Amino acid sequence: MAKKLWGGRFAKKTHPLLEKFGSSIATDHRLAECDLVGSFLHIHVLYGAKLISQADLSVLKKGIISLLSDVQKGKFKYDASSEDIHTCLQNALEKKLGKVVDKLQTARSRNDQVVFDTKAYCMQEAQALHRTLSELNNSLKELGKRYSSMVIPGYTHMQHAQPVYFKDHVGAYAAMFVEDEARLECFVGRLEITLGSGALAGTPIEASIYKSQIKKALKELKIDDSIFKVAPPKNSIVTVADRDFVLELLSVLAIVGTHISRLAEDFILWSTKEFDFIEIGDEFCTGSSLMPQKKNPDALELMRGASGILYGNLVAVMATMKGLPLSYNRDMQWDKQPLFSSFDIVRYEVNILCQLLKSITMKKASVDKQLQDESLYATDLAYYLVFKGVSFKEAHESVGKLIRFSLSMNKKIKSMSDDELKQFSPHFNKTDVLKRFDPVFSVNSKKSVLR
pTM (2 decimals)? Predict the structure, then answer.
């Protein structure tokens, strides 16, 4: 069993079942890099407060930088018997440096450490996801450009509504992801990483020392302190007790997942024989173990399904936090699995989508066949009458009757004579009516959209 950071108070060892149940190292080992950065800042604070010597600082700096390098290069192997990553790294440093490491926990609690680590991790991952979402938006724009002149049926209630540009349809998803980027920007801009809460009540070290020494340490690590904002806490109790930042980020990730799920659903439908609008690259589909003909859009189905996990992760942490008294409680250890899970899911989804979008081929013949549905142009006919001076209510009713007649008589409106059309409105003129059944004319007649 690995050496713990506590234990003097206890006469008996932790029960093996609790040891196993309470261990978080299998999950929180992801925080190793952030924890070492926090330790690097902390030893500068201790030196600034004259709690360690210059010699101690030099030794600890060298050891932490060496271990940090190993972690960043994937060379560090964490001890699975450790209680958590904080203990694991402390023990690893002790093996490297000896007893000087005993001073590292001065004026520091794991309550404070874990908040620092989790906030630093969230900052790092939110910035990375922001960059990846930008790439996804570029992929959507490229797909729209490839088919910039293509018009497709637009839908409401999954029924034919009005023609729209394909680029505008995928542009709608790009707009959603732009909003997701903005939410991440807001999160990163507001997130303040803290050091100095101790267990809950703060530490004997002056806040001014924290500020000056943290700034110096970040500069040594070449970390931009205008983005990676670290400061002593304004309220140390809420700092160790709060996981609102986790909830906020899980909410953003769940919203991203919602947008991905909706995009996946559109493409799944469009890839069916019933729609037959798109062909998805073979590399993003799978087959059937029984039916030789099958080409299933599994990548998109997995994305659609994963949205449920993202929602569950958010609700799980909310349910954990809702009844906790101030300040820190061990229940909060359970925030890591949902947080890491959500990041993993969204990261995979966005990266796969960036590539999947490049594999899509639009099937113009199938799309054009759907555009022959005359009901798609009913609103254009109503506008035609309005511009002739008819009230919209009357125009709506006239066109509705025309559509009903067409369907009941199984007769195309385009094949009707002037006399037949004028039965529904004296303002109808066949030449003008026929123009309204052109999908390009229809989309270009909509002037309010800022293209």
Answer: 0.93
